[in-house]
Inverse folding.
């Protein structure tokens, strides 16, 4: 079977490949592939991809083998286990092509999900057999994904021993007799949209070339096949995005008896949702990476990060649960000020009108500051050291969620929405009730590009999933409604691709060869400030040591080699250190009059170990941080290290802007940290205050910044690109893009329920306030006249 170790070494060295893919044109079909012909067996393997574009999950591939080859196969991802495998053989004059999957070095079995369509140039002649196939839903699979825009190391396999039953597409077969790897710059292997679409439809030649009259055949190797005409199924509500906003919306709508479709571009997460990605030590216990709270820090250090949206430049979760399946799960009951007219919310949401929805959320999802199932707290040295520090500054030690409005000089144990020692959140609660109803349907691995509209009326949603509607189109029932819940980056992109937003963004879409032609006529473009008014907490880390601290190996061993007593305890009854994410203590303090009269709050989060990249890093800036982490870990004697992350929260006045680039990838156009001159002095003052009485705690030393640098110099030099807290809000702000019923202004039946509607940051990490906002928003939608 494929050698994982060999592959890893090759992938790391990059230059160690015996062969590197080059461009070639297959004379039979005119398709320009990137691939190789292996010099021993003379089998050709090639791939070509559509233009780099958000949501594309397909490619065209071919295997051309001498007739003597009993079977041949490929792993575009380069590994055998937990990867999409494609293989073929000749059965008489027919080529049998199938996709397989193996969760270990065992017999790969047929795998549902990919849609394989044989293209017309597939053939057998006297010397060769050739399999040319279109592979849809093929770049993301259970536990992995294919980066089609990078230099990669695909693998090939060859066998001189026939499969067990060549006439059976689902046949077993013996281990291959040879295998190899090569280097391929997939980022160069993207065709124009015109060429790719032509080839994918069975056409030949380039630049749009001629379409053959031969029909394509779709294989039935697995349960999924591409069917050109799937009957449209209309829904009352189509919700796009299974993050917290979308899950709560879909649950409440289905509870009200509406026929609901929830679309999610990613795959499963927790065990309950069908996820299976877990560390070796947790195998056999119905647990995944996404279930075990103590694996939170490994979200950022795994070699196989399929859960991030790979087309968004900041961290965003692209899997069932969205951010709540990968986040630290810090869960704060909103303050009354979080929903006030002073902070941009409508009066119908303010002055206590929102309290009902906070209560509804808490009933479904209570918070806990002692998530271990035995009720004990573990690894609490940081709480006690930072508590001592804050006591000296006049702070009170409280149970934070018992008194949400007490946020000035208050600290307490970190609170979470973990349930029974596992990740809880909306996935373990609201999604479960939704899934118990026959009027609710969820489709995963389904990317929604845009809504289809006639002027102000939305007719349906365009997706890439041809199994759920003709060409992936899903219509609405009469008076039906669409709710966008694709997150602060995802929902703006869908709006732009639907002709809604500022003209500079819509101009970018109109220049795109695939999505430009699908835009509504310019007269129907709706000009709204989508992407403006964006906030995220600027955050700065301070790193300390103190002799009593257990840094827990910087969380570096929890995946591969956890402390045996801790993993055993967790597996036994979900108790102990691993029943909690890394944070241990949170605190807040109000500041006014530092340079202006705005009241701003500082939030602190303290955790054992060196600061995790999650709180401080954009997706793109991680490499820089890795070098820091490596240096810290090299000093493994610093086993008494801990971090305080200080965030500026309520009252922040800086705003940024989110948009798309020419490849339609969402990203910050203007970073929202320290845009306004009033914010930076407050965080600087807050940092100085945190360390104002360091000497009062025995053995406490600050190492970043150390004593060679003033706090002013530290803040001044702090890399702005590492200030991201992953708490993005505001890109579809209420009363600016959506009205008080979260309806997109200028439309009849398009709504948004996600973090993008929040006009400013709440007091704490945002998903608590977002979930109560989702409860409120969906209640408003249900109460709105004229719906289905
Ligand atoms: C690393 C990290 C740590 C965090 N830590 C915390 C924390 O400890 N506490 C806290 O309160 N908050 C935290 N957050 C923030 C919190 O998770 C988010 O505020 C919250 O998840 C936002 O919810 P949402 O519904 O707006 O969108 P998301 O959670 O982003 O969900 C959007 C969903 O839509 C899907 N989607 C996107 N585009 C499409 C499309 N075109 N078609 C179909 N599906 C689509 C995505 O795959 C995703 O599942 C953290 C976030 C991150 C990334």
């Amino acid at each position: 079977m494929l050698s994982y170790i060999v592959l890893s070494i090759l992938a790391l060295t990059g230059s160690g490949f015996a062969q590197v893919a080059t461009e070639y044109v297959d004379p039979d079909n005119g398709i320009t592939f990137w691939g190789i012909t292996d010099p021993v067996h003379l089998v050709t393997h090639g791939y070509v991809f559509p233009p780099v574009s958000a949501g594309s999950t397909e490619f065209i591939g071919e295997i051309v083998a001498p007739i003597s080859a009993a079977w041949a196969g490929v792993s575009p991802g380069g590994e055998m286990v937990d990867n999409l495998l494609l293989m073929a053989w000749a059965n008489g004059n027919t080529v049998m092509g199938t996709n397989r999957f193996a969760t270990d070095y065992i017999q790969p079995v047929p795998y549902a999900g990919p849609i394989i369509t044989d293209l017309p140039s597939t053939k057998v002649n006297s010397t060769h057999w050739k399999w040319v196939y279109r592979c849809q839903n093929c770049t993301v699979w259970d536990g992995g994904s294919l980066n089609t825009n990078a230099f990669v190391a695909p693998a090939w396999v060859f066998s001189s021993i026939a499969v067990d039953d060549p006439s059976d597409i689902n046949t077993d077969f013996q281990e291959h007799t040879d295998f190899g790897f090569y280097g391929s710059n997939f980022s160069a292997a993207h065709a124009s949209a015109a060429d790719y679409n032509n080839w994918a439809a069975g056409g030949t030649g380039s630049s749009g070339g001629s379409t053959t009259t031969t029909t394509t055949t779709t294989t039935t190797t697995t349960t999924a096949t591409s069917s050109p005409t799937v009957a449209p199924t209309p829904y009352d509500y189509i919700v796009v995005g299974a993050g917290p906003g979308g899950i709560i919306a879909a649950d409440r709508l289905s509870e009200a008896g509406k026929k609901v479709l929830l679309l999610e571009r990613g795959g499963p997460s927790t065990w309950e949702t069908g996820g299976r990605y877990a560390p070796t030590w947790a195998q056999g216990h119905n647990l995944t990476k996404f279930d075990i709270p103590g694996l939170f820090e490994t979200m950022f250090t795994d070699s196989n990060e399929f859960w991030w949206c790979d087309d968004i430049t900041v961290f965003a979760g692209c899997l069932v649960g969205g951010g709540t399946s990968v986040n630290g799960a810090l869960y704060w009951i909103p303050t009354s000020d979080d929903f006030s007219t002073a902070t941009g919310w409508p009066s119908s949401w303010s002055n206590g009108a929102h309290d009902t929805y906070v209560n509804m959320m808490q009933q479904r999802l209570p918070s806990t500051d002692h998530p271990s199932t035995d009720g004990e707290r573990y690894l609490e040295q940081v709480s006690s050291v930072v508590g001592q520090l804050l006591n000296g500054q006049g702070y009170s030690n409280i149970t934070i969620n018992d008194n949400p409005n007490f946020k000035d000089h208050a600290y307490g144990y970190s609170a979470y929405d973990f349930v029974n020692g596992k990740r809880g959140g909306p996935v373990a609660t609201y999604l479960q009730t939704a899934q118990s109803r026959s009027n609710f349907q969820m489709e995963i691995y389904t990317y929604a590009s845009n809504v289809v509209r006639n002027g102000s009326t939305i007719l349906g949603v365009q997706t890439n999933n041809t199994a759920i509607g003709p060409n992936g189109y899903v219509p609405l029932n009469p008076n039906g409604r669409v709710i966008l819940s694709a997150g602060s980056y995802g929902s703006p992109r869908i709006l732009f691709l639907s002709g809604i937003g500022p003209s500079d963004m819509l101009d970018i879409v109109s220049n795109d060869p695939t999505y430009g032609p699908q835009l509504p006529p310019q007269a129907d473009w709706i000009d709204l400030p989508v992407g403006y008014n964006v906030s995220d907490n600027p955050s700065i880390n301070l790193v300390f040591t103190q002799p009593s601290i257990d840094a827990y190996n910087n969380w570096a061993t929890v995946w591969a080699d956890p402390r045996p007593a801790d993993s055993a305890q967790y597996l036994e009854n979900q108790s102990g250190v691993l029943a909690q994410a890394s944070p241990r203590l949170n605190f807040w303090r109000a500041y006014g009059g530092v340079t202006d009269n705005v009241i701003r709050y500082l939030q602190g989060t303290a955790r054992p170990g060196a600061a995790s990249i999650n709180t401080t890093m954009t997706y793109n800036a991680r490499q820089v941080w890795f070098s820091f982490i490596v240096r810290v870990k090299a000093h493994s004697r610093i086993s008494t290290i801990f971090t305080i992350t200080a965030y500026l929260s309520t009252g922040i006045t800086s705003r940024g802007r989110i948009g798309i680039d020419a490849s339609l990838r969402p990203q910050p156009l203007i970073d929202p940290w320290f845009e306004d001159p009033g914010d930076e002095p407050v965080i600087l003052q807050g940092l100085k205050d945190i360390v104002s009485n360091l000497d009062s705690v025995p053995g406490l030393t600050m190492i970043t910044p150390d004593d060679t640098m003033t706090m002013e110099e530290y803040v001044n030099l702090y890399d702005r690109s590492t200030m991201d807290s992953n708490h993005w809000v505001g890109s579809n702000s209420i009363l600016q893009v959506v009205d008080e019923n979260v309806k997109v202004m200028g439309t009849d039946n398009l709504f948004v329920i996600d973090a993008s509607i929040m006009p400013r940051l709440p007091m704490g990490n945002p998903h608590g306030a977002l979930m109560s906002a989702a409860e409120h928003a969906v209640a408003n939608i249900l109460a709105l006249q004229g719906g289905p």
